[in-house]
Structure formats: C-alpha cells, structure tokens
Design brief:
alpha/beta, 26 helices, 26 strands, 37% helix
Length: 693
C-alpha cells in the first residue's frame, strides 16, 4: 500500500502506538513503538505502485476498497476506458461487491439502425474510432437500462440526446452547475479516482492533459471536508498529448500508475458536422459582436464552427466578410449594437480564449492569427497592459509565460489532438489546462486579476429554445427528461452580467423539425428553463439578433418576435396581447414577413457557390465519396418520412435511368447486389445520388 500513514499517540511512558488501520493493514495498539517525539506521523510505504496489467490493478483496487468501490472519473476524454471496463467486469461478476460511478459525458460511438445506415456508417466508424475502440461497458448497459443492481452510475452531463429513453440514466442524473460538481461529488465518500494521463516525453512527470478540470478541485474539497484521500489510479495513454504547466504533476501524485503493454486505441474524436445555411447566418451575426482585444468562450458543434469560420473571414478576407453580412442582414454592420459592442475589422490585438472546453474552433482561430492575446497571472503587468503601458520586460514576460488560451478540458477531432501533439513547447506553453473553478468562476480566487484578463468577454453558447420573455432552454425537455446537462452555461451567462463590458450570446436555430412537422424554437413559454429570463442578454438565430439586456418585457417580446420564423409570429402576438404584455394595437412590421428559410438560402447562395461558405469549414472527417453519399442518404431519409413518400420514391427509383456511381455503390457494398432487397436498395441509392448530384 503506497503512502500508508500510521498516526502515533504519545503516552506518559514516552511510547506511542498505532491507532489507525488502513485497508487490511493494521497495528495492535498493545504493541508499543519507541518514539522520540520529533514527528507526529510515521510514513510507511513503497511509493507509487507501477503495474502493467489490468487484472493486477483491479485486484489491488478491490482489496483497497473492500470490494465497495465509490469511484470518480473525469468527463469526456479523460476516462481510462480500458481500466473502467475491467473494473466493471470484475464487479458485475461478483455480486457481493459494488460499484458507484460519479462522472459525466460518457462518450460512446454512434450506432447504425437500418441496413442502409449500417452500410454507410460501419466502415466510417471503423476508420474514425478504430476497430479496437473500448466502448464503455457501463455506458452500453446504462443506455439499455440494464445496469446490474450492484452498479450505480450518476452523471451530471450526458452525451447529447443519447439517453433520453434510459430510465437508469434519467433517474440518476444529477443537475449541477459545472462549478458545483467537485463539492457535490466530494460528499459521496469517494474512495477511488481514475484518470487517463500522458507521460512527459523524456521525463517522469504525468499530465492530466485533457482533464485537469475537476480532479484538483475534487481533491481539495475532499481534504476540506476532512474525508480520506481517495485511491488515485492513472492509466497512461501514449496517444494523449502532453500538456505541461498547471496540468502536470509528479508521478507520486498518484497511488497507482498503470502502463499497459498493448498499444493504446485511438482517442475518441467527435466527427465534425456540416454547417447549414441557418447556422452560418447565426455564426456571422455573432462574429460582428466579438471585440478585438477581448475574450472568447465558445461551445462545441456546428454553430461554433460557423462562428469561428466567420471570424476567420473577418480577419483574412474582410471585404468578402462584409459582403456576406450585408447580403444577409442589410444595415447590421452600421447598427449601434455592432458599433458599441463588437467590430467588423481584422484583428490587430487578437483574442484571448477562456473556455471550459478547448475545441477545433480555438485551434483554427490560433492558426489564423486571431487567438493570440496573452494574459499572465501577474496583476501589476495586467494593470499596465490595461493602461497600455507595458514595458519591454513585460512584453517578454507575456510572450514567454503568458497564456493565449485557458481551458478545463479538450475534446474534438483527430486533427485537434495531432495539433496538440506536434505543437512546439514554446507555443504549447501558451495553453493553460487548469481547474474548472478558475475557468468558470470569478469568485474565490484572484477576482481583480481575472477581471483584467477577461476584458470585453463574449460568452457564446447554444440553446435549444427560447421564450419571447428571454428565458432559454438548453439541457432538458418540458417533461423533465434530460437531453445533455447544464454544464457551465449558467456560469458563463452569470459571469457575463458580472464582468464589466461583457456579453452573453445565446445562439439557437429558429425552427426544428419533429415528425416531419416544423416547430418554432421561439416560444411563449416552456415547462423547463436553463437560463432564467432575468439573465436575458443577446439572443441570435438565423433571422436576427435580439438585444435583451435591460429591456422591459414589451421591448423584449418585440425583439424576440423580430427574429421569429414568420409562420409563427401571428399566434405569438395574439398570445402576448391576451396576457397584457403587448399593446393591443400593435401590428407586426412588414419586414418580419421575410423571416423565412427560402429568403435566407437565397441570400447565402452566391457564397455557397464560390466556396466562401463550405459545408465543413474547419475540416472534414469524410472522404469525397462519403460526402456524396451523405447528401443522397439525407435525400432518401427526408423523402421516406411517410408511407406515400416511400412509395413515390420507390417508383421513381425503379423508373430512373440514373448513371451508376460505381465508387459510391462499392462504398455501400451494393456494386453487385444479389437479393431482391439489395437490388431495390441499390436502385434507391443510385436514384438519390443522381437527384443530389
């Protein structure tokens, strides 16, 4: 047992005896030890245990915990999947043991449903994730509500939309702000913490790399509560990029280090999504609200990709950028909102990134020369920078030790991970992976310093729906089922109101489609909210920008109606009048009638055609033939939503004389169909390829 601490008690005879047992090691109080009084504790141990098999690691853990494991694991990429699977298997087999897992965002690769989906998806999954990717056993069981009685999984953030139909996941979801997680988990009497780590190239230190976000905070909370320090297990992953600085620790920080002989599987990488016209419209509008010399926080997904691409065009192709915005939103560039709170010129000073998640967007912004403003944990230097009075030594210090990006965890594409691996140390030193309490919170640390660092901050996050009174729905449905989680969104929205000259920007799509019916994402009211209306600030969708900060209810409603899809405006106006929130004589301006998707596509069509707005602006994980197939399969999916639609498509496919795309048909395994079903499927795919060419 590493670092076994035996407490010694002084007696009147000058002797002491051990009173504390640790695991299965104990000392008989009647068996005295001679003691000279120079220390209060005797450290007995073998240092950090180094093991190279999972069986050995699990055996020691079960002995250490008495077969009752209460385990904390990082969210996302930082989970050691192989170790967690070995622990799960051991507990599943032994019903006298138990396992409780406290974590979040248990990443699992997607699974195909229909035969057509499998033909397309499985070859991509094998290439993207690797054929040996260790999918989490507990996550698979949880998805089916099939966790055994002796295993509990409690998460505070779920893989988006993946567990809506899991009773076990929904019942044991813990709704927490990201900054409150460490304190909540510390109360659970954790006796084990597992973490994926990187080993220092040519050295002995270990890096928490992708996930220092909660580990340090959790251990501090456990110590504050006077609870025993949990058994810390680290699994070395050779694929994980080394990040030094605040993410690095000495090897003996962990009680056990597992270095497996077999090669590490690929890191979990999120497949990059295509950016649609509505998402580009949202991203471009948001990009004009980012102030040069300011601070940027963004989430993940195609909306953030659209925002980052717009910022890159603003910096590198400014005339084209302004042309797009003028076509999309005439007069927006000259609006008071943009003039007072944003900018449209290239970046001279650059931006500083402070975001719980580091993603591909930040990589692209740094490569483009936008993410370059450095901050340093030296209040005197930051004060002089604020006053534009930096000395030559200050500038050298900032360049050497300053950060252009601080984050709590990173997650993204394979390109992101390779970028982090290949980055020279002098440049990588500008990335500070650190505690979530530092990123998502102003209070409790050095607030004066952080206010100077986070000047003109723009917190850009995504929500699912908004109300006309400014509340936002981001994490759950009206019936209580959780889609994802609150995460840090509330933290950032609240911080935007606390930091001077900062703004919260909530981005959302104006409509959604359910069961082939279009619904508005601007609602009168909803049975669940993530961000309350008293924290309303800036809301953006494809139809416009609503500046809600400081607005009374009637002004807020008018601003939200102005960005609502035209089809849904009349009923919302009627509702607002009935509830006495809108003047009874109010009539919608005629310009609101143009809030329609066809108007949006018409404005962006020229820029789509000249490739200023590509489908995958920050990189693509699909091969060209797969991109053709994605469009074709999307066409089939939209056309077969009803029985009549299916019949119509089948008839058109059978009558079609479309050219045979041999490469695409081979990719789908349909080049030489044999059965009647395969022949019909091949016909449908050929027709769809022709229709979307």
């Amino acid at each position: 047992y590493p670092k076994l601490s035996i407490t010694l008690m002084k007696t009147t005879e000058g002797f002491t005896y051990a009173t504390k047992s640790c695991g299965q090691i104990s000392h008989d109080p009647g068996n005295a030890l001679r003691y000279d009084g120079s220390t209060e504790a005797l450290e007995i141990g073998v240092g950090t245990l180094n093991v190279n098999t999972l069986d050995q690691a699990v055996k020691i853990l079960l002995e250490r915990t008495g077969n009752k494991i209460v385990l904390a694991a990082p969210l996302g990429l930082g989970k050691p999947h192989r170790l967690l699977n070995a622990i799960y298997e051991a507990v599943e087999k032994n019903k006298s043991s138990s396992l409780a897992i406290y974590t979040a965002l248990s990443l699992t690769p997607p699974k195909a449903g229909s035969d057509l989906e499998k033909r397309f998806l499985q070859p991509f999954l094998d290439r993207h994730f690797g054929t040996d990717f260790p999918t989490l056993h507990y996550a698979n069981a949880q998805r089916r509500s099939a966790l055994p009685d002796n295993i509990l999984v409690q998460e505070f953030y779920m893989q988006s939309g993946g567990l809506l139909n899991s009773s076990q996941a929904q019942r044991h979801y813990n709704s927490l702000n990201y900054t409150h997680v460490a304190a909540a988990v510390a109360e659970k009497n954790i006796n084990c913490l597992v973490q994926k780590v990187a080993r220092e190239p040519g050295g002995n230190r270990l890096s928490l790399s992708c996930n220092p976000d909660l580990t340090f905070d959790l251990l501090d909370e456990i110590k504050r509560l006077g609870k025993p320090r949990p058994f810390l297990m680290a699994e070395i992953d050779s694929q994980l990029p080394w990040i030094g600085g605040t993410a690095a620790v000495d090897e003996d920080y962990f009680d056990m280090v597992i270095d497996l002989a077999q090669p590490a599987p690929k890191l979990f990488a999120l497949p990059r999504q295509a950016v649609t016209d509505p998402e580009y419209a949202i991203g471009f509008r948001a990009s004009a609200l980012i102030k040069d010399g300011g601070t940027l926080q963004i989430g993940i997904g195609s909306l953030s990709d659209a925002l980052c691409h717009a910022l890159i065009l603003r910096h590198a192709r400014n005339a084209d950028y302004k042309d797009i915005l003028n076509q999309l939103a005439p007069g927006y560039l000259e609006s008071d909102l943009v003039k007072n709170h944003g900018g449209t010129e290239p970046f001279s000073i650059g931006l500083y990134g402070a975001s719980e998640m580091v993603n591909d967007g930040f990589m692209s912004l740094h490569k483009a020369g936008i993410l370059k403003r450095r901050v340093i944990d030296d209040i005197e230097i930051m004060l002089r920078e604020h006053d534009n009075n930096l000395t030559a030594d200050d500038k050298l210090h900032l360049q050497k030790d300053g950060h252009w990006l601080n984050g709590g965890f990173y997650l993204g594409s394979h390109d992101l991970y390779q970028w982090l691996r290949d980055m020279p140390d002098t440049e990588k030193n500008g990335i500070g992976m650190t505690r979530i309490s530092h990123i998502n919170e102003l209070y409790g640390g050095n607030e004066s310093l952080e206010r100077l660092q986070r000047r003109d901050a723009r917190f850009c996050n995504t929500c699912m729906m908004t109300t006309v009174l400014g509340a936002a729905v981001s994490d759950a449905l009206e019936d209580g089922r959780v889609v994802s989680g609150v995460g840090g969104q509330y933290n950032f929205v609240a911080m935007a109101h606390t930091l001077r000259d900062s703004r919260s920007i909530l981005m959302f799509r104006g409509t959604r489609e359910q069961a082939h019916t279009v619904h508005s994402n601007v609602l009168w009211n909803y049975g669940h909210t993530t961000i309350p209306r008293h924290l309303r600030d800036i809301s953006i969708n494809e139809y416009g920008v609503a500046d809600l900060r400081g607005a009374d209810d009637e002004t807020c409603i008018k601003a939200m109606l102005s960005i609502c899809d035209a089809h849904f405006i009349p009923q919302l106006i009627d509702k607002a009048k009935r509830e006495l929130k809108l003047d009874s004589h109010f009539n919608a301006p005629t310009s609101w009638a143009f809030n329609r998707p066809e108007q949006l596509s018409l404005a962006l069509k020229p820029f789509r055609e000249n490739n200023l707005l590509p489908d995958y602006p920050l990189g693509c994980d699909f091969m060209p033939v797969e991109l053709r197939l994605i469009k074709a399969l999307g066409f089939l999916k939209s056309g077969t939503g009803t029985s009549l639609g299916k019949i119509k498509l089948i008839i058109l496919a059978l009558l079609s004389s479309a050219e045979k795309d041999s490469e695409a048909m081979a990719r789908m395994g349909l080049k030489e169909p044999n059965t009647l079903k395969e022949k019909l499927t091949a016909r449908l795919v050929r027709y769809a390829l022709s229709a979307t060419k």
